[in-house]
Amino acid sequence: MSTKNKILDAAESLFANKGFNGTSLREITGQADVNLAAVNYHFGSKKELIKAVMSRYMNELSPRLEGALRQVCEIESPSLIDVFSAFIDPLLSLNKFKDNGTSNFLQLLGRGYTDSQGFLRWFLTTQYPGVIDNFVLAVQKSYPELSAEEMFWRLHFTMGTVVFTMSSSDALIAIAKSDFDRELQISDVIRNVIPYVAAGVGAPMPLKR
Amino acid sequence: MSTKNKILDAAESLFANKGFNGTSLREITGQADVNLAAVNYHFGSKKELIKAVMSRYMNELSPRLEGALRQVCEIESPSLIDVFSAFIDPLLSLNKFKDNGTSNFLQLLGRGYTDSQGFLRWFLTTQYPGVIDNFVLAVQKSYPELSAEEMFWRLHFTMGTVVFTMSSSDALIAIAKSDFDRELQISDVIRNVIPYVAAGVGAPMPLKR
DNA sequence: CGTTAGTTTAAACGCTTGTTTAAACTACTT
DNA sequence: AAGTAGTTTAAACAAGCGTTTAAACTAACG
Model confidence over A143-179: pLDDT tens digits? Predict the structure, then answer.
C-alpha cells in the first residue's frame, strides 16, 4: 500500500471520529505508520488532505447517486420514499469500496458542515452540483405542489437531519444497543431516517398567514 | 458588569460561531477585555467554562419548557403540532434574557453534539432530564402507537433538524432574502420547521421486515 | 557504474494552546 | 492604620500544533 493511501485511510477514520480540528497530523501519520512530513510532501497541507479524503468518496459516490436519482425521475409517479430510497444503494456501495466506507463518509459529511466554518460545504456544493440538481428534480416530480420556497426550507431541514444524525451515528448505535439491545449497522440508521425525512418533505403546505 | 459575566458573554458568542475546539481562551479574554488568567481563576478550566455557558441558558430555559410541555399534556388530544409549538415561546424568551439569545443557544446546542466527542450531550441529558422526559410524555400522548424505539430515533432526527437548521439560520435567512425577497426572523425559521418535524415524528410506523 | 528524480526521514522551526505562578492591586474588617 | 481575603495582572510554563529544512535513502535510466 502506498504512503499516500495509508495517509488517506488513517486520516479518514480519525477525521470521522474526532473531527477535522480535533485530529492532528501526528495522530494521522502515527496511525498510518508513516513519517510526519509525508502529509505535507504528498498533499501540501492539512486542508488539502481534507479535500482529498472527501474527493475520494465523492468521485465514487456522485455518479452512482446522480444515476439513481435520474432513474427515480423516470418512474410514472414516484413517491418521496422512492426519492430518498435512491440514496440507499449508492451509499451502501461505499462499504464495498472500503471497510466502514458508508459510515465514515456520512460522518465526514456531518463534520464538514459544522467544523471548519463551512469551507467544506462550499467545496462540495461547487464541486458536485449535479447531485443536488438531480435531487431537486426528483422531489419536484414526486411533490409538484411544493412551492420553490417551501422546497428550499425542507431540503435544508432534510440536510440537517441526515448530516446531524450521521455525524453522531456511532453514539446513536451505542445507545440503541444499551437501551433496546439492538445490534444496528449504519445501513439500519439510513433505513430508519428515510420515513422521517420523506414525511417531513411531504408535509402539507402550511396555510398562508 | 462582573468579570465572570464578561467572560460568559464573550465565550458564548465565540463558542456559537466557531465551536468549542475552535475558540481559544485568548480570543475569549480578548473580546471580554479581561486578563487571560481570569478564566482559570473563576471557572477552573475551559471545560468548566463550557458547562457554565450552557448552564446559564438551561437554567433559564428548562423550567419554562417543562411547564409548556406539561400544559400540552393536559390538552384532550394534542397534535404533534401542539407539542412542537410548545417550544416556540420558551425559546423566543431567550431573546429577552439576552441579545441573540435564541440563536446563540441553539447553535451552542449543535456544537455540543458534534464537538468534544459528546461530553456535552452527557452533561445535558444527565443534568436536565426533566425536559426530555416531559417531551417524551407529550409525544406519547399525541401519538400513542409510536414504539419506544421508534420514538428514540425520531426524537434524535428532530434534534438534528432543529440544531442544524438553527446553527445555520443566519445563512438560511440571507438566502431567503436574496432568492425569495423575504425578510425573515429567527422566529419565522422556528415556525417553518415545526410542520416538518411534526410530520417526521408523525410518520406512519414502518412495517417490520 | 554514476546520475538523477522521487521519496522518506529526523530534526527543528515558529507559533498557539491551556494552565500555573507569584506579585500587585482593591476593598473591607479589626 | 494594619491586616486580610478576594481579585486582577504580567509573565512564564510545558506541550502540542502545522509546516519546513536538508540530509539520507531508493530505484530506474543512460
Answer: 999 999 999 899 989 988 988 888 778 788 988 999 9
Touching check for A122 and chain B: CB below 8 Å?
A: no
CA→C1' distance for B35 and C24 (Å): 14
Which grid cell sits at A11? 486520516
Q: Could you tell me if B58 and B124 are in contact, meaning their C-beta atoms sit under 8 angstroms apart?
A: yes
Name the CATH superfamily housing domain B54-201: Tetracycline Repressor, domain 2 (1.10.357.10)
Domain boundaries, chain B: 54-201
Angle in degrees, 0-180, between the axes of helices A169-180 and A148-167, rounded to the nearest 10? 70
The CATH topology of domain A53-201 is: Tetracycline Repressor; domain 2 (1.10.357)
In this complex, the nucleotide whose C1' atom is nearest to the CA atom of residue A44 is D19
Which residue matches cell numbers 437531519? A161
The answer to whether some atom of strand C lies closer than 7 Å to the beta carbon of B11 is: no
B37 lies within 8 A of chain A by CB: no
Of the candidates B190, B196, B167, B120, the residue with the CA atom closest to the CA atom of residue A168:
B120
DSSP state at residue B117: G
Which chain B residues touch A19 with a CB distance below 8 Å?
21, 114-115
Question: Within an 8 Å CB–CB cutoff, is residue A201 touching chain B?
Answer: yes
How does the average pLDDT of chain A come out, rounded? 89
Contact A7, A42 (CB under 8 A): yes
Q: Whole-angstrom Cα distance, residue B39 to residue B188?
A: 36
- Contact between residue B20 and residue B115 where contact means Cβ atoms under 8 Å apart: yes
Mean pLDDT of B71-90: 93
